Amino acid sequence: ECRVDDNGRYDATTGPDLQGKSVLSEGNDIVLQLLSKPDGPGAQSVVLNKGTFIHSYPYDWRTKEPVLIRASKQWFIDTERLKAKALEALRNVQILPSDVKSGMVGMLKKRPYWCISRQRVWGCPIPVFYDAEYGTPIISREIIERVAEIVRLRGADSWWELPETELLPSNFVEKCKQEGKRLPQKGSDILDIWFDSGSSWHCVLGGPSADLYLEGIDQFTGWFQSSLLTSVAVNAKAPY
Q1: What is this structure's pTM?
Q2: Measuring CA to CA, which of 49, 152, 173, 183 is 20 to 30 A from 232?
Q3: Chain segment 166-219, per-residue pLDDT in tens
Q4: Residue 96: which residues within 8 A CB-CB, separation 6 or more?
Q5: Torsions phi, psi of 10, nearest 5?
Q6: CA distance 49 to 51
Q7: Which intervals hold domain Aminoacyl-tRNA synthetase class Ia (predicted)?
């Protein structure tokens, strides 16, 4: 459970003292105050000592601001279900230099899942809507095909520019109106760029596998692997 909102502030579940306070600034001070003066008769401070430590901490390379690490809901591909087929598909692939093949196979075997969602304000959107009342995901072939057609005609930015009334299938919108329900809200997650590049075989090839995939040696854990997994998932074969 995460008690921090998208703006890095404590949410309503933390109580009136913390709600709306920035986690990395004033929120820190209030937490210390609450721990130092606990409620209840006979309660004692649980703070044994307070000081400042200099240590490594992640900073955003664009804004130069500290990064707040929090729990968030993500979308995953269960690569466990693809491993056996992917490893079998590699039997028909010649990998050069040959001595790196074991490394690619080893990484593939150890990979438990693939997180394909990212929280950025640009990129290829994940076409998922969320129930306006309960927040549960709403996704179907009909919705995906509708969004895909809009993106094909107007580009990926249409997901951010158009309202739900235009992105959702018209019969879905009409049904919500008839039942007096609020329209689902579009999600703000984008696809991992490795999913984008890893599915490029679909647009470039459209048919048989490529004769050659050429890239740097570092891509045995990147593009080569993401291309293999997406192709095996859809076509049950390697794209190269």
Answers
A1: 0.77
A2: 152
A3: 999 999 999 999 999 999 999 999 999 999 999 999 888 776 789 999 999 889
A4: none
A5: -65, 140
A6: 7
A7: 64-240
